[in-house]
Request: fold
Amino acid sequence: MSRMISSILMIGSIGYFIYRYRFRIMNLLLASTWLRRLAVASMMGLPGVKNKLMQSVFGKPSEW
Reply:
């Protein structure tokens, strides 16, 4: 029982640490070129994200 409580507390504290410093952790990870390239490639692989990004960058196609 004590081991289970300590495991729950450990997971909770790690989760809290990640949540609190999520932007610092993300900046640290994305400072690496190959991790940044992997993150962008995986996000652009999602059709909804890609379409929304392309519409915001290039605008919607004009209707003739």
Observations:
- The first helix runs from residue 2 to 20.
